[in-house]
Structure formats: structure tokens, C-alpha cells
Amino acid sequence: LIPSQIGLASPLVTIILWRRISVYCCPSSLVLPLPKRGKHAFVAPPHGATACQYLYLLFPWGIGGFISLGDRTIAFVIWRTKGRKRVIYGSVALGVITVMAIAALQNPRVQQIIQIDTSQGVIPTIDFQVDGQTEDRIFMWQAGFNILRDRPLTGVGLGNMSRLYNFYRPINAGAGAAHIQQLHGTPAHLLGELGLIGGLAIAFLLVQLVRLGWRIHSLTEDLTARRLLYGLGGGWFAYAMAALTDYQLENIPISLTLAFTVLALLAIADRTLPNQIPASLSESQRRSLSLSSLGATLSALVAALPFSISMGFFAQGQLLWAQGNAEQAFEKIAIAETINAWNPVYPLRLGLWLLETREFQQDQPEQYRKSTELAVAYFQDAWTMAPNDFYFNMNVAVLLIELDSPLANHYLERAVQLLPRESGFAYLLLGYAYAQQDRKEARSPP
Questions:
Q1: Tell me: the pLDDT tens digits for 388-414?
Q2: Measured at the alpha carbon of residue 98, what is the angle toward residues 96 and 99, in degrees to the nearest 5?
Q3: Phi/psi at 115 (5° precision)
Q4: Residues 280 and 241: beta-carbon distance below 8 Å
Q5: Residues 78, 80: Cα–Cα separation, whole Å
Q6: 116 pairs with which residues across the strands?
Q7: Full-model pTM
Q8: Cβ-based burial of 222 (10 A; exposed 0-12, middle 13-18, buried ≥19)
Q9: Is 185 buried (19+), middle (13-18) or exposed (0-12) by CB count in 10 A?
Q10: In angstroms, what CA-CA distances link 212 with 64, 207, 216, 262?
């Protein structure tokens, strides 16, 4: 009854990952050779990097990124031209965009979302359909809105989305959009984990970066610096568009790429704005800022310490269980649960171990029943942290039926409410529980 989460590492995943990084870096590497002159402009290493990135973008999974990059390049060329050249480049750009749109319409997923019917007359009818992936994203964003409404200031906390998501998942999502790690939308995810306070802090940082880039563009005539600035801006724009429907900050290579672009912007500012040095702070101000930063860092470490310690005990317990030391393994996981009481993984693991243990107690009815009761208790602990999870309700209900407990009704009824159209096994167990309790009117179909 417990679905396992399997990490998949394959060449396809690697290609998709580096394609995304290519979309963000390609504008920067494209403009790096521009200051070169003569033959050096053709042998500059960035041209080779750009060619490799375009090859990544030409994979079938990168059509969207390729079109997005083409649109940005066209917009940039038009923006940097005037007069007759703008008309010429605009006409060419319109033709290129038309070709790109036709190519995009050949994509099977695009055809599934945008359905064009030309059989009704001269003017085709266009119908938009919401596919499964889009619907799942809508459910995830609704969950993010539910979190923001319940915890508007602080959210659920960084890294806690996977633990608390099912508290807020829309019930009409059914079996879809369940057990997720992130909300597939950076704004929704960050607001859900950080709340309005964290969201405003991030927005303030982004505004300052944009202001710094605009100041560099306004105050310098250095073509090299400007072209690098355009490249960085193009990469940021690419990430901003991708971030609307995906959350990629959990990916270390992508996060490092974004961090390096910020460092590049600061390096450009240091070189082009030598006279824009801010006024130095007084000694008391520096002391206050230093102590505040140190205090905030220590507070963050203290807050993360219980989580880290509990993970250490959990890892030790897993190792001891694999080595056959069941008693010591239970002790380690129990300590982890005590330290980090909001994590459902620990009681869930203890309950599963008890189910494995009772298989060797078939000839010991008392021990078998005791193991079952303990497993129920641990599954109920996990259920309290995610009562809107179908599987957590089923875990408790299946064992309570074995104990002939009428309490199983509550969990089974909740399970069929959560997945009313895909809960055949839950309906069967609920009817069996009603039969045990001689509730004929309840087990009869409506």
C-alpha cells in the first residue's frame, strides 16, 4: 500500500538538464565573441560553446526552448535597429516567427492542447483543451494558494513542501498531483514555502539586480560590457519564462548557473561603475550588521540542527536493520521520530518494519496482534501529518479491519472521498467492514 519513490538517472534526464542550462547560457556565450574583429571572431571559443548549445536545443524535447531563444534573439535585433533597417529586420522576424509557429504546431502535445478544425468552412475553428500535465499543474498551484491563504506570512518553510503538500492538495485532484516535491511553478512554490515575507525579500533582490543592470546600461558606453549585459539579460529572461511553469532551484547545476550570472553582473558593475561606490558605513553600523548576520546564521543552524540529527539517526537505523539488528534499528528510528515529530517518514518506516516482523509471528497469536496494534499506532502517527493522503488512510484502515475495529470505517470513508472514482479496493473493504458490523443499510448501493 505504500508507494515507493524511485530516483531515475538516465541519459535522457541528463540531456534535458543540460538543455535547460543551454537555454539560460546561450545568450551569454553568443555575445562573448562579438567584440572580436577579423578572423578572431570566427575562432573564438564561445562560438563553439554556442554551437553545442544549439545542438542540445534542437533535440525533440527542446523545441520550446529553441523557439523561445529565437524569439528573444529576434526581439533583441529589432530593439537595436532603427529606421529602414527596423522595417527590414521586422519583416524577416515576422517570417521567422511564422515558420517557428508552424513548426511548433507539429508537436504532438501542442496539437493535443490546440485543436484546429478546418472541415467546417473557410475559417478554421480553434479549440483549446487542458491536457493531463496542465491540469496537474493547476491543481498544484491551487495547493500553493491554499498554503498562502492558511500561512500567509511564513508559508510552510523551506524544504517542507513535500511533507505538507497533501494537507493542502485540492480534493478534486483525485489521484493526480499527489505526493509531489515541488509545485512546478517557481512563484507558487516560493510563496508556498516562504510566504509573503520571503516572497517580498526575493522580489526586492530581483528588483535590485534589474536596477543595477539598467544603471550599467545607462552609464557606460563600453560595447563589450553592454553585450555581456544583453547576454545575461537574455539568460535571465529565459529562466523567468521557464520558472512560470517549473521549479528548478532544487537543481544544483541550474542554481549554480544562475549564481554565476549574478557574479558576472557584479563583475561588470565593478569594471564599468568605478565612481558609483556607495558611502561607507560607520563602525557601529558595520558591527550591528555583522552581529545581526551572525545571529541569523546561527539561528538558521539551530533550526536545521534537529532535522539533520534526526536524518543521521534514521540512516543509522536503516543500516542496522539491513544488518539484522532489528531492536537497535527501532531505537534509532524512534529517536529520530522524537526529535523530528512532524516528519511522517519515521513512523511510516517503523510501521512497515513491524509488518515485516509479524510475518515471523504467525504461530504466536498474541505477539502477532501486538505487532499489528503497534503498526496501527505508527501509521496513525503518520496519518495525523497528512490526513488527506489516500494511502495513509488505507494503511490504517487495512490493519484496523484485521483487529475488527469499527474505527476502520472512518479511514475507509475518507479514502473513498479522496479518490471516489479510483478506489475499488477501498469500496470493497468498506463494504466488508459494514458487513462485519451488520450495517446492511450502509453497505447497500445508493
A1: 788 888 889 888 888 877 888 888 888
A2: 65
A3: -105, 120
A4: no
A5: 5
A6: 126
A7: 0.56
A8: middle
A9: buried
A10: 30, 9, 6, 11
